[in-house]
Amino acid sequence: MTAVSEHRISQIFGSALLLTTVAELVYLAVWGFWLFPDGSWMGKVVWALTCAVAMGAAIGAGILLWAEPLRNSRSALWRAAAIVVIVGSYCAVLCSALDARFNYFGGSGQRVLFLASGLLPSFLGGWLLGWWLYRWKAGNRTPTETE
Fold it and tell me: Residue 101 in contact with residue 28, Cβ under 8 Å?
């Protein structure tokens, strides 16, 4: 295994943090402010941003450890996608259980919809992040290989 450059580490963690932050901000706007505006808005913001950073860090570390060593093969894309799905799904279930207590995002009354809105983005985001970090074109690596 070759050493991973600082630039590549930043790219992996930065991409994971960007993905989770955008997802959490959309979730916050739709579930926290629009559908269920009652409750502490500051609490909702802190919750969403904390989850975004924690998920992004866990996803970035997982990709760095389990997908990046295979970056010269197509398996890296699928491993990265799987890591996002695993972390995102776990967080959706955990968030659902916590929200049943705090009721910031309506998870206690709309549990199935709440879980679905957390699980579906995990699958879409997994594919997107895997493609972004390990995309292939006609069998040749994209410019990210030369970093």
Answer: no
